[in-house]
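In response to the reviewer comment on reproducibility (Comment 2.3), we provide here a single inverse folding case reported in full, input and output, so that an independent group could reproduce the run without further information from us. The structure tokens appear first.
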């Protein structure tokens, strides 16, 4: 490996912009081989483990568990044991995080969008692919989560890895991803390296340019006889993203007379904190006394505890606000008698050869899958190009975990027996609570089931999980007096089912037809074994 190797927060997927460190696997000062687990990083609803791409000694940990950092931020440094501490400190101090953000462009992923270009890129009026300085492209690709071979190939072909979604393990960008990107869309080609002497510049301007690795070519000097000044280099470097923007200037303190200034000094009051009320904006002695009273006033303790937003809670908030604001919800509620299903469940669980104990939720998943096969127009996604109707019932099952909610998917539930559904759902729920699910296991569902009956909730309305067309909310089973066919009265076990529908894809009559099909299967459950 190189003597000093930076470890940055990787970009797992196009939509990822930040991550939260969960736990370090490698202790500071420990040595590990390539492929060893370094750190767990929480991204939205899952936790991924970042593995070492090179072996070495962990010399710096630049973030603590719980810290949320942007993609591309330096989180650790690997270095040979022979590298002095001063060199590590200098490397960390001089490291510049690379902007690896990417948003899909309007009109398709291949449409040029100048607003999404990174610092240092340019685009001509003819619509050609943007060009980027080779050093910037190489540094940006270094921050991407890609294999070494893919990174070298991308640098050679001029492909910006921050614009790619990896198809390898844990979203890693592979050589095939780079080759596919180079063949299907315009590559970001390196800009030609300027030749010839650099423009005349002051010594301090030359020193800064060498320090940040920037060429003086193309800089128009504003000094005497066109000489490039320090300000010229700083302005250009900030425009290219090689220096941070200048810190905002603090407002000047108000004007004040000698007496007011002396009083402010005696009371230890900064004139910047004084609100002037005197003529022409001058601060008076009374203004100083008022500022002193405000500074000495006791601060009432907060009557609440501020809980920081986790990546999961942020993702849930964003998704649900978007769903509630953009999806036209309507709700249908039906009551189903559950006596037959509860008795059926007891009989199945009492069998000596039963693989596992079935829950009511397991039978609900199976019944919902069968109802979706009977009414397939509810087993849909809404999309801009049309309504996508699926041939398989992939049921997302809501699982409450600490700090949020996950919806792992039981795929192909219509062809699984209740025991296979129980085993699959139990495994997914257990790993959901441990935060070890993969992205594939929490995505791709065609319909969602949310059950709050175990908490005693009678009935509720769930928010649709886009792009799905519907979600089923399940309440608790309660005892109610019902009229019998002979006119008498008897108690029955009743459950309320509420279907939330996206009116763009599912109409009222269609949702009612699905609830009727679901109710028939719950009230005559023998068909769930066929």
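Designed residues, in position order:
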């Amino acid at each position: 490996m190189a003597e000093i190797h930076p470890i940055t927060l990787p970009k797992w997927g196009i939509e990822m912009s930040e991550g939260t460190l969960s736990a370090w696997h490698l202790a500071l000062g420990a040595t590990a081989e390539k492929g060893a687990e370094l750190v767990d990083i929480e991204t939205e609803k899952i936790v991924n483990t970042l593995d070492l791409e090179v072996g070495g000694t962990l010399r710096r940990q630049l973030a603590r568990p719980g810290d949320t950092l942007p993609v591309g931020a330096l989180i650790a440094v690997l270095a040979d044991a022979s590298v002095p501490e001063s060199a590590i400190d200098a490397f960390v101090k001089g490291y510049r995080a690379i902007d690896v953000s990417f948003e899909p462009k309007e009109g398709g992923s291949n449409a040029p969008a100048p607003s999404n270009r990174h610092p240092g890129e340019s685009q001509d009026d003819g619509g050609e692919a943007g060009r980027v300085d080779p050093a910037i492209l190489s540094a940006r690709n270094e921050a991407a989560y890609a294999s070494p071979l893919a990174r070298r190939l991308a640098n050679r072909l001029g492909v910006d890895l921050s614009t790619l979604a990896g198809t390898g393990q844990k979203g890693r960008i592979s050589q095939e991803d780079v080759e596919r990107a180079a063949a299907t869309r315009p590559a970001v080609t390196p800009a030609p390296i300027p030749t010839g002497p650099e423009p005349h510049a002051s010594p301090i301007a030359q020193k800064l340019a060498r320090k940040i690795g920037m060429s003086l070519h193309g800089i128009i000097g504003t000094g005497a006889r066109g000489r490039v000044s320090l300000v010229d280099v700083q302005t250009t470097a900030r425009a290219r993203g090689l220096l941070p923007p200048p810190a905002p200037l603090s407002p000047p303190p108000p004007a004040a007379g000698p007496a007011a200034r002396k009083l402010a000094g005696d009371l230890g009051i900064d004139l910047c904190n004084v609100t002037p009320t005197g003529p022409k904006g001058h601060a008076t002695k009374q203004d100083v006394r008022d500022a002193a009273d405000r500074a000495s006033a006791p601060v009432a303790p907060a009557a609440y505890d501020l809980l920081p937003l986790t990546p999961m809670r942020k993702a849930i908030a964003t998704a649900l606000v978007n769903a509630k604001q953009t999806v036209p919800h309507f709700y249908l509620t039906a009551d189903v008698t559950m006596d037959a299903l509860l008795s059926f469940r007891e009989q199945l669980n009492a069998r000596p050869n039963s693989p596992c104990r079935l829950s009511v939720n397991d039978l609900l998943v199976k019944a919902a899958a069968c109802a979706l096969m009977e009414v397939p127009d509810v087993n849909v996604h809404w999309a801009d190009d049309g309504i996508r109707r699926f041939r398989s019932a992939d049921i997302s099952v809501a699982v409450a975990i600490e700090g949020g909610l996950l919806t792992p998917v039981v795929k192909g539930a219509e062809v699984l027996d209740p025991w296979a559904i129980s085993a699959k759902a139990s495994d997914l729920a257990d790993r959901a609570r441990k935060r070890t699910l993969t992205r594939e296991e929490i995505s791709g569902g065609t319909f969602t089931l949310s059950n709050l009956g175990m908490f005693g909730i009678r009935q509720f309305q769930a928010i649709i999980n886009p792009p799905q067309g519907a979600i089923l909310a399940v309440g608790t089973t309660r005892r109610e007096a019902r009229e019998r066919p002979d006119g008498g009265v008897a108690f029955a076990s009743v459950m309320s089912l509420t279907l939330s529908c996206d009116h763009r894809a599912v109409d009222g009559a269609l949702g009612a037809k699905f609830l009727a099909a679901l109710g028939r299967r719950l009230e005559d459950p023998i068909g769930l074994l066929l």
